[in-house]
Amino acid sequence: MLSRVADSIYWLARYIERAENSARIVMVNANMVLDTPKGMSPGWRPLITITSSEELYDQNYSEDSERNVVKFLIGDMNNPGSILSSLWFARENVRTIRDVVPRETWESINDLHLYAKTNLRNGLSQRARYDYLKHIIAGAQQITGMLAGTMNHDTAYHFLRIGRNLERAEMTIRIIDVRSASLLPHKAELTPFENIQWMSVLKSLSGYQMYRRLMQVRVGRPAVLKFLLQTREFPRAFFHCICEVEESMRRLPHNNKTLAILAAIKETVLKADLAQLEQQALHIFIDDLELALADLTTQINNRYFVAEPSPIKQSG
């Protein structure tokens, strides 16, 4: 397979996943702000931190107001990680590989991008934002499901699967890192505010219902960390995502270095005693995971993409 094609498929998956993730964290944060007592709300700045966009945001906006952050994350084309930018990048990538993916993929991505663009005013409106974001999430999930259900599970599909799961893995640990920073790590009883925060972590990853079903305990720090970092069952759990990447990587040639990195990441995650990690230790642990993911993505890029790099991508 041409490296250009592999690159485009990989980034197509990442951008569709990124658009869905951004829509969900905005939706969940809006609900959390409403549910949190005055003076205790985390506000909107954490979303900028989750998306690793602090420098770019601060260059263009003077305050962390709801309107500014929502505009930046939904419709600012100067932000390569905004929903509108992500869908544009996805559209441009799929346009160059229309013979590789099912025909309906191009139509669905084009329709979703057009919806996001023409209805942007609704996304910025408090009253209409929920329906707008819900449509984005549903559209992204439809595209993901369509590709899984109608595309040949060949080499191209494995690059798609790798891209999707790396994007998910990164988002999961970023949400945990940022949201847990404001919480006290060792309380037998959660305050209502802390309970809302941990529930928001789960809901930001569409994991609340599946957490209750799998863990069968009340929402609390140790169980949430175990669920989101170490379980194989939940599709957005970090360990699950790494296993999915590993399974697809085994189908690709010249994979020794990447498989070694993946094996080390899996061992690190499973050996961690998460219940004993205080906040600073958890932050360091997640930083180490992020560095390992960065090393992995560099290896993938150097091995499979550098010969014919695609111009339609944005790192981060």
TrEMBL record:
Segments passing through the bilayer: none
A Pfam family it matches: Alpha-E
InterPro entries xref list: ATP-dep_Glu-Cys_Ligase-2 (IPR051680), DUF403 (IPR007296)
Signal peptide start-end: none
Domain of life: Bacteria
Domain (DUF403): residue spans on this chain: 1-305
Name of this chain's protein: Putative alpha-E superfamily protein
